[in-house]
Write a structure and sequence with these properties.
Elements lengths: L6 H12 L1 H20 L4 H23 L6 H4 L2 H20 L7
Helix pairs in contact: 1-3, 1-5, 2-3, 3-5
Length: 105
């Protein structure tokens, strides 16, 4: 399944996977989701919602690093864009899990 990303969402996706603070937050979430998968309690919808915090963190860092002082992160990266980025990152993680890769190995 391919997700159509806007230019803003594409930029946020690459920034999220390369922004150290946001990626550390995402990795902590992945470890938690792996524990839930092992217990049979993993919910993909809730995982995407939980990952949205890391994506939001990346959006805030992006605007602070690259934009004017009066630019707002929530205006630059709309909720649909942030949700699409969280979905794409979780799809990447789930693909890694399906081949046996993970963060707790």
């Amino acid at each position: 399944m391919t997700i159509e990303l806007t230019d803003a969402a594409r930029e946020l996706y690459f920034y999220t996977i390369n922004c150290a603070p946001a990626w550390q937050t995402a990795e902590a979430a992945f470890r938690n989701y792996e524990r839930k998968r092992a217990k049979g309690q993993y919910d993909a919808t809730l995982a995407r919602k939980g990952l949205s915090y890391a994506v939001e963190q990346a959006a805030r860092h992006y605007v602070a690093d690259h934009c004017a002082a009066d630019d707002k992160w929530h205006d630059m990266f709309k909720p649909a864009d942030r949700a699409a980025v969280a979905d794409m990152i979780m799809n990447d993680a789930e693909a890694e899990w399906s081949v046996g890769n993970g963060w707790s190995n």
